[in-house]
Automatic annotation (TrEMBL), chain A:
Annotated ranges, domain ATPase F1/V1/A1 complex alpha/beta subunit N-terminal: 7-69
Gene3D superfamilies: 2.40.30.20, 2.40.50.100, Bovine Mitochondrial F1-atpase, Atp Synthase Beta Chain, Chain D, domain 3, P-loop containing nucleotide triphosphate hydrolases
Record domain ATPase F1/V1/A1 complex alpha/beta subunit nucleotide-binding: where: 214-435
Function: Produces ATP from ADP in the presence of a proton gradient across the membrane. The V-type alpha chain is a catalytic subunit.
Enzyme Commission number(s) of this protein: 7.1.2.2
Gene source species: Alkalibacterium gilvum
Protein name (database record): V-type ATP synthase alpha chain
KW Transport (keyword) present: yes
Record GO biological process: proton motive force-driven plasma membrane ATP synthesis
TrEMBL record, chain B:
A Pfam family this chain is assigned to: ATP-synt_ab_N
GO biological process, one term: proton motive force-driven plasma membrane ATP synthesis
Species for this entry: Alkalibacterium gilvum
Domain ATPase F1/V1/A1 complex alpha/beta subunit nucleotide-binding residues, every copy: 131-350
Name of this protein: V-type ATP synthase beta chain
Residues annotated as domain ATP synthase A/B type C-terminal: 356-454
């Protein structure tokens, strides 16, 4: 670390160094006497511009700026899971031990615990040829996840020395590799990786497996594939965060990286408290054992907010390289875009739409493109799925962040204010939302859930569209004047909305629902519709049908049929048949 | 150490530039002396080698390029703190204005505060009963929450805030220490007087710290007011273990001051001329609500903001809603119908409600009843607009019941007297009275078990 310049000017998180300097682009630097972490963002003959990841108040021109020679990086190794970090991977628990309840700047902490000894099982032998990505050791990182230490991506060579299985820290050498140029390099459990560079993979391929979330409106109507991308836009109070929490809790990803980007501190505390207590149904351990949190709350420095998205993505890619399915929850990408705007404004760049910089679209694109189902160099397959919340200004989806996000994601779950006001959660608007993955996933649904799943889904969506256009009429003239078959469409639409789309996150059975039950629920609703249709074609008026409690009963299935007792659906089918015969006999 | 610089290099609105300074730090406070008679404070907002751009907290009238002496203080803005602050009144930047003399302070703290570490926060779960049904049942206030009131000009937000202060069970009955920090930014004199009277009448004035920047006080000073108020609140809460309720009014004036300074700095504006960092700036204040793990006190915030033109999508309410843990929205139509408090329950929300209600805190049926009231009330508008097209007589029986439900909700449940203090059980029973107007099969948000227990078909 050597001094390469002195501070010339300070404007919020932006610091200038005068003259032509030897700094490199994107280099990590230490700024001022307190050695605050910063990053070089522009270089020219007159001055160097640095964004500082911490509060700059009290800093003076003339203070030193030190070079580190390497870009802003994160440390990758065991200790990431079951932990909470700030936007540049500094562990918040360690910071709390050092400085109490407040985060003071200049906290000099190691990113991962360097003293903890991990039980290591070495999986390579002396003489073995290795390339970047080869798994060299296994470490039980948490009760749920087996961490696989790998050769860093840019190294190739032959193992010349290994250690005995035993307990090691992340800074002790595990193997020694003789590189192609004959030099020897020590490989440890931890490696560094610059956050803005995607980690390399062998190839990318189309995903045909859904990321199952347990949320009906997602899994059945607008599914996302493993390695896919989705956006959740919605005004405040529409339930973006709630939906992210539900997916983080119940999705079948192996690992969750939850990025709290410019959001509330209490929300991160809640995730931390809840996830530590909740049991992951897949492993039987606490959910935190498979989760890592990145917290840059809205009152933390804005430059680190910009970095937090990349930090989270890099952690996710690292676990993908081990062959895991990783899901990133980014809440909210709008705060990240606003951080870009704020920094861009301080740099006096020419703004494009609504003050956002012209490179907004390309930054959003590079972020979402880091998702994907990949073949890794060690021949495992892993995926990174990205689910990003968007907080449009004024709840208006035509603003730049929502629009640019829409271009680069394949799933759009638009949240609706009116639904949220009715407390219909998840408030996903079934008319605006879409998923481009349905075609890719159809075969999987057919083979793994039920042969009719995709057809039934299509019918349900059709009914909802019909219902919506009928409701426009009803709002004007009331429902009494509609013909009976249209009244039926409205009634079935109501059953779908209340009994299927609406899902109670606080109900122990309803909070997460397996795909099989989702399929059965659609089937039974469509069966009810078929029988009612037949009654109506026999001249039975809708008012007669509505006198029966069958509709209420079907709506209550979500609560009344436990997720592991799907055989109960046969009883409901009988009930519908009885309802049919009863009406026919009484009124024939 | 304290060199004085004579003269300035430019004055533009609230901003002055001074060149040739040595050792100036970013965010440092400077003292001006105009004509050697008038004292002003300012803050360095940009600094280059030997040039500093300073934002003056008071008016820049009388300042000239020649007559001003500038002195660097060597520290950022600090507030002197003492337990005796309760019961005192200060100006917008924390100087006593009640004639009781200077504060005998025990410590001084940077008013910007540091962010609370999320791992040291405690998730707020304690219900505060306000005695107002619309709030207690539907947008429950939780200790440590930030719950703003979105209002409009001429709506009774001050009365509502005052009633909350009077009735809120902040700790009085549990013999816990409590206090109120009141920060006024650009409000009228009579509003400040109204609050002072309310505090006096309800006998809590000894527990109130007031920071007043009134409508005719310097605009830039209001940028400091909420920060000094929250610094005082944090001291009282976390150092002295009190439960503090902070009332910030009017946040709209604060944001306008921010816009004014931003435009004189010639920054690139985002929406409606507000600076791009409005979100971060508001967050740095709102996020100072909360509870620290292992400490007895808490900071609860009720910011009040008037929505320009009653527009909830205006940047100020919009960004606030994204940061705060819910909002209470006042509505002009309801106020027109003489409903007090005119709370429009549909867009109102309390995000922390779910953790602080239910069997352990209020009653088992609370969540279900609230969900049902929201769902049913949202249908009232449909019934009303249908009635206005086809006439009330033509409505179906169910729709007629919704009309009457809406009417009763507004007059008998949401609406109440200025001094009416309902307990949570009274509120929940009243809610069931409302639900009894509707047929049982319309109540699809409530568990069958709860319906059997609380819904009496024969009523």
């Amino acid at each position: 670390m050597k001094q390469l310049g002195t501070i010339y000017g300070i404007n919020g998180p932006i610091v200038y160094v005068k003259g032509r300097t030897l700094f490199q682009m994107s280099e990590k630097v230490f700024v001022g006497k307190e050695k605050l972490i910063g990053e070089v963002i522009t270089l020219d003959n007159e001055r160097t511009t640095i964004q500082v990841y911490e509060e700059t108040s009290g800093m003076k021109p003339g203070e030193p700026v030190y070079s580190t020679g390497s870009p802003v990086s994160v440390t990758l190794g065991p200790g990431i899971l079951n932990n909470i970090f700030d936007g540049i991977e500094r562990p918040l628990k360690t910071i709390a031990e050092l400085s109490g309840e407040y985060i003071h700047r200049g906290a000099d902490v190691k990113l991962l615990d360097t003293e903890k000894k991990w039980p290591v099982h070495v999986t390579v032998e002396v003489g073995q040829e290795v390339i970047g990505g080869t798994i060299i050791a296994e470490v039980p990182e948490t009760k749920t996840i087996l961490h696989k230490s790998m050769i860093p991506p840019d190294i190739e060579g032959r193992i010349v020395e290994i250690v005995e299985d035993g307990e090691y820290t992340i800074t002790e050498p595990i193997v020694k590799v003789q590189k192609l140029d004959e030099s020897i390099i020590e490989i440890k459990l931890a490696q560094e990786w610059p956050i803005r560079n995607p980690r390399p993979t062998k190839s990318r391929f189309e995903s045909s497996i859904p990321l199952v979330t347990g949320q009906r409106v997602v899994d059945s109507l607008f599914p996302i594939a493993k390695g896919g991308t989705a956006a959740i836009p919605g005004g405040f109070g529409t339930g973006k965060t709630m939906m992210q929490h539900q997916i983080a809790k119940y999705s079948d990803a192996d690992i969750i990286i939850y990025i709290g980007c410019g959001e509330r501190g209490n929300e991160m505390t809640e995730v931390l408290e809840d996830f530590s207590e909740l049991i992951d149904p897949k492993s039987g351990n606490s959910l935190m054992e498979r989760t890592s949190l990145i917290a840059n709350t809205s009152n933390m420095p804005v430059a680190a907010r910009e970095a937090s998205i990349y930090t989270g993505t890099t952690l996710a890619e690292y676990y993908r390289d081990m062959g895991y399915d990783v899901a990133i929850m980014a809440d909210s990408t709008s705060r990240w875009a606003e951080a870009l705007r704020e920094l861009s404004g301080r740099l006096e760049e020419m703004p494009a739409e609504e003050g956002f910089p012209a490179y907004l679209a390309s930054r959003i694109a590079t972020f979402y493109e880091r998702a994907g189902l990949m073949q890794n160099f060690n021949d495992t397959e892993g995926s990174v799925s990205i689910i990003g919340a968007v907080s449009p200004q004024g709840g208006d989806f035509s603003e730049p962040v929502t629009q640019n996000t829409k271009r680069f994601v394949r799933c759009f779950w638009g949240l609706d204010k009116a639904l949220a006001h009715e407390r219909h959660y998840p408030a996903v608007n079934w008319l605006d939302s879409y998923s481009e993955y349905i075609g890719d996933l159809a075969a999987w649904y057919r083979d793994n859930v039920s042969p009719d799943f995709v057809d039934n889904r299509r019918r349900i969506v059709e009914i909802l569209h019909q219902e919506s256009s009928l409701m426009d009429v009803v709002k004007l003239i009331g429902s009494d004047v509609l013909p009976d078959d249209q009244k039926l469409t409205i009634e079935i639409g109501r059953v779908i909305r209340l009994g299927f789309l609406q899902q109670n996150a606080f109900h122990s059975e309803d909070t997460s629902v397996p795909l099989k039950k989702q399929g059965k629920m659609m089937e039974i609703i469509l069966y009810l519709r078929k029988r009612c249709k037949s009654l109506i074609s026999h001249g039975m008026p809708m008012s007669l049908l509505q006198r029966e409690d069958i509709f209420t009963k079907i709506i209550a299935i979500k609560y009344d049929v436990p997720n592991n007792k799907l055989e109960m659906f046969d009883q409901y089918k009988n009930d519908i048949d009885e309802f049919y015969t009863k009406i026919m006999e009484k009124n024939a | 150490m304290s060199i004085e610089y004579l003269g300035l290099d430019s004055i533009n609105g609230p901003l002055v530039v001074i060149e040739g300074v040595q050792d100036a730090a970013y965010d440092e406070i400077v003292e001006f002396s105009v004509h050697r008679t008038e004292q002003k404070l300012g803050r360095i907002i940009e600094v280059y080698e030997d040039k500093a751009i300073i934002q003056v907290f008071e008016d820049t009238t009388n300042m000239s390029l020649e007559n001003t002496h500038t002195k660097l203080t060597g520290h950022s803005m600090e507030l002197p703190l003492a337990p005796e602050m309760l019961g005192r009144t200060f100006d917008g930047i924390g100087r006593p204005i009640d004639g009781l003399g200077e504060l005998n302070y025990v410590s001084k703290r940077d008013i910007n505060g540091d962010p609370l570490n999320p791992v040291r926060r405690e998730f707020p779960r304690n219900f505060i009963q306000t005695g107002l049904s619309a709030i207690d049942a539907l947008t429950t206030l939780i200790r440590g929450q930030k719950l703003p009131i979105f209002s409009g000009n001429g709506l009774p937000h001050d009365k509502l805030a005052a009633q909350i202060v009077r009735q809120a069970n902040l700790g009085k009955e549990n013999n816990e220490d409590f206090g109120i920090v009141f920060a006024a930014m650009g409000v009228k004199h009579d509003v400040a007087d109204f609050f002072r009277r309310t505090f006096e009448e309800s006998g809590v004035i000894d527990h109130v710290t007031m920071f007043l920047n009134l409508a005719d006080d310097p605009v830039v000073e209001r940028l400091i007011t909420p920060k000094v108020a929250l610094t005082a609140a944090e001291f009282l809460a976390y150092d002295l273990g009190k439960h503090i309720l902070v009332i910030l009014t009017d946040m709209t004036s604060y944001c306008e001051a921010l816009r004014e300074v931003s435009s004189s700095k010639q920054e690139i504006p985002s929406r409606k001329g507000y600076p791009g960092y409005l979100y971060s700036d508001l967050a740095s204040m709102y996020e100072r609500a909360g509870i620290v793990d292992g400490k007895p006190g808490s900071v609860t915030q009720i910011p009040i903001l008037t929505m320009p033109n009653d527009d909830i999508t205006h940047p100020i309410p919009d960004l606030t809603g994204y940061i705060t843990e819910g909002q209470i929205v006042l509505d002009r139509t309801l106020a027109g119908k003489s409903v007090y408090p005119p709370i429009n329950i549909l867009p109102s929300l309390s995000r922390l409600m779910k953790g602080g209600i239910g069997e352990k805190y209020t009653r088992e049926d609370h969540q279900a009843v609230a969900d049902q009231l929201f769902a049913s009330y949202s249908k009232v508008n449909d019934a009303r607009s249908l009635a206005s097209v086809i006439g009330e007589d033509e409505l179906s029986d169910t729709d007629k019941r919704y009309l009457s439900f809406g009417e009763k909700m507004e007059n008998g449940f949401i609406g109440q007297e200025l001094d009416e203090n309902r307990t949570i059980l009274e509120t929940l029973n009243l809610a069931w009275d409302m639900l009894h107007i509707l047929p049982r099969e319309e109540l699809n948000r409530i568990d069958t078990k709860l319906l059997d227990k609380y819904f009496d078909e024969d009523r």
